[in-house]
Structures are given as C-alpha cells and as structure tokens.
Amino acid sequence: MSARGRTGKVFSWGLAIVALAFVAWVVPVRDRCWDVRAPATTKVAVSRQSDGCTLYLRTGDVHLDLASCAELRCEPGVASTLAHARPEVLVGLFALYAVGTLFWAARWRALLAFAGVDMSVLEVWRISTEAQAGGILLPGGIGGDALRVASVVGRAPRPGGNRAPAAIVVASVLLDRAIGLSIIALVAAGLGIAWGGVRDGALAFVLAAIPAGVVVGLAVLRRAPVDRIEWLVQGRLGRVVAPMLQYVRDPRAPRAIARAVSLSVAVAMVQFAVVRGLVFALGAEPSAEKWVYVGGAMAFIVAAIPALPGGWGTADAAWIFFLGLAGLAGGTALAVSLLLRLFWYTSAIVGAVLYVARPRTTREGVEPAGQPPA
C-alpha cells in the first residue's frame, strides 16, 4: 500500500472513531433525568418501573415513587425511544422504502439503456439490491457502486449480444450518483426554503448549488473540446476516458438524463417521506421542520464518505447533529439513523438471498445441471 493510501486509511478510521465517540457522548442509551429545582443541573441515567423509577447515581442507585419521577425533567434515551416506536407505521415506511428502491433501479436503467445495455428494471433492481449487501461490508457508498459495476460488466450477454463495456457502466454509475445527489440536494433546498423562508435558507442555497455544479460539469463534458487534451484521451487513460466522453456526448444522453432526473425526484421524495415518517413513528415533533429535510440531505451526503464499512459513525453523527438543529433529542435522531440502517440491512438481506439463489453459468454460458432457476 502506498503512503497516500495508508494516510487516507488512517484519516478515514480516525474520522469514524471521532464520530462514534461523538455519538456515544451525546446520546444516552437510557433516559437521562434531572431535578429542575436543583442548584446545578446533573443528568443521571434512569430506568422506569411500574411503581416508579430508579436513578443511577455515582453514590448508588436511588428508587423514587411515581409522583417524584413525574417531577423530573428527562431527555429520552435511544432505548426508550425505540421501545415507543409505532410498529404499524414502521411496516408501512419500509414498504415505501422498498418502492423507492424500484425508482432507483429505474433511474439507473434509464442511464444504461441508451448506451446499449439491455436490462429490465427488475434485473437492474436485483443487481442494485445485491450490491447493497456488499455495501454493508465496504466503506461508504462507493463500495456498493463498485459491486454494481462488476455485476453488470460480468453479466452474461443475451444471445447475439456483447458484454457491457466497463467504461460505459462506470460512466452510468457516476452519472447515477451525480443525479441522485443533485436531486436530493435540490428537493431538500426547496423544502427547506418552503418551511424556513428565504431569509433563513443559507444552507438550502448551498445545497441548491450542487445540482447547478453538476449541470455545468455535464455541459463542459458535452461541449468543451476536452478530447483535444492528448494525455487525457490517449494511452491507458484514454481507453477509459474516451468511452465515457462518447457516453456523455451521445445525442440520446439528454433525453435519458431528463428521464433519470424525473425518476430521481421520486426517489428523493420517498427518502424524505421515510425520514419524516420515522420521526412521526417515534412520537417526536420537530421545532424547526426545515432541518428534517435540509439536515437529512446533509446526512445522506455524509453517509457516502468512505470511512467505516456501512458508514457507521459518520452517518450517525450527521443525523444526530442535523436533526438536533430540528429540535429533536439525540436519542430520537440516533433512532432515526438506526431505523434507516435497519431498512437498508433488510433490503441487503433480500439482495444476499437473491445472490445466493442466482443461477451460475459455466464458461460456455450453459447453466450447470441441477441448478434451480432464480
């Protein structure tokens, strides 16, 4: 491993450890309560029973009756927050989350289809879901993207067809990510301004700059004479860059991008609806609604940083910080992050099962005898 690679790995792990430490410091597992009449505010962990509650003081455990417990001011811990979640709402939100994965697959298919990669929406959904399983074990969102590329490139072609060019698939995944990030930022900016107004919409305008930057970047790739830069389009690098430029400059690309954008709006609306629904399912009410969406977009962006596998630490810290700006307790914010992760892991389990059940082919492309169909 090169010195730069070692430095990057140390930085990623250091960032993740700091984020996990922040989460552990800010969010209590149990409720933390204090007596508002005390001369100094001292929060202590509390567990509740039918006849009262128990305070875990440094000097020893103290049991209080129900009346005394009612006089305490408490900050809910993540355990009690999850315990009071409404299961019927969570089931409905997971169903909505699953619908969102279909929109995501349709978006990527729109970017693959015009380049000649012939796959159905369900085939693309299956590959995407299988990649989610690998994304749990790999850093950030880029690990799952690498698996998506490998799955499409390594996929056996249809009779009379050719394998998908690796550079084209990479270009489609990069564009899929760029469009997804841009539309999440744009929708969050719109919702943030709608709920908070223009005067308090500084971060919303920063988010709105992301899709503007992507549009400018695509315009440069399509119109600027970058193909005249010899070192960029020749040699080993050119074998990768040239097909990507051809992909972006294809006359059919604008129509495919427009379709992907419309599907991405549906993906973003589903994601924000799931986040807001989780807040509702946990019985919380934000004091600043705009931060549920603006902060949610920032948390989705942070979750893609390649730190610990699955984004542990960095993503959770982002949710705690930004939902805290919405007026939600740390326990509620962490519960939202954990439930989103639960939805992701459940979807990934489905992907892992589909991968195991996938029929394997021999070098000649013939299914082995006795292999059950997927």
Textual characterization of the structure:
- This protein is α+β, with helices and mostly antiparallel strands and 374 residues long.
- The chain folds into two domains: 3-75, no CATH class; 87-357, no CATH class.
- It is built from 14 helices and five strands.
- The protein has helices at 3-26, 66-70, 78-83, 87-113, 121-137, 142-153, 166-196, 202-223, 230-233, 235-248, 253-281, 290-303, 314-325, 330-357; strands at 31-35, 44-49, 52-57, 60-65, 72-75.
- The chain has a five-stranded antiparallel sheet with strand order 4-3-2-1-5.
- Helix 4 packs antiparallel against helix 11, helix 5 (121-137) packs across helix 6 (142-153) and helix 7 (166-196) runs antiparallel to helix 12 (290-303).
- The longest helix has 31 residues, at 166-196.
- It is elongated, with a radius of gyration of 24 Å.
- The protein starts with a helix and ends in a 17-residue tail after the last helix.
- Residues 362-374 have low confidence and may be disordered.
Which percent range describes the beta-strand content?
5-15%
Shape designation: elongated
Distance between the termini: 39 Å
Count the helices. How many? 14
**Which structural class is indicated by helix and strand composition?**
alpha+beta
- Any idea what the radius of gyration is? 24 Å
Q: What about the largest sheet?
A: 5 strands, antiparallel
Could you tell me the mean pLDDT?
79
| Fraction in helix | 55-70%
Provide the domain count. Answer: 2
What is the N-to-C succession of helices and strands?
HEEEEHEHHHHHHHHHHHH
| Poorly predicted segments | 362-374
How many strand elements? 5
User: Taking strands numbered 1, 2, ... along the chain, how are they ordered across the largest sheet?
Assistant: 4-3-2-1-5
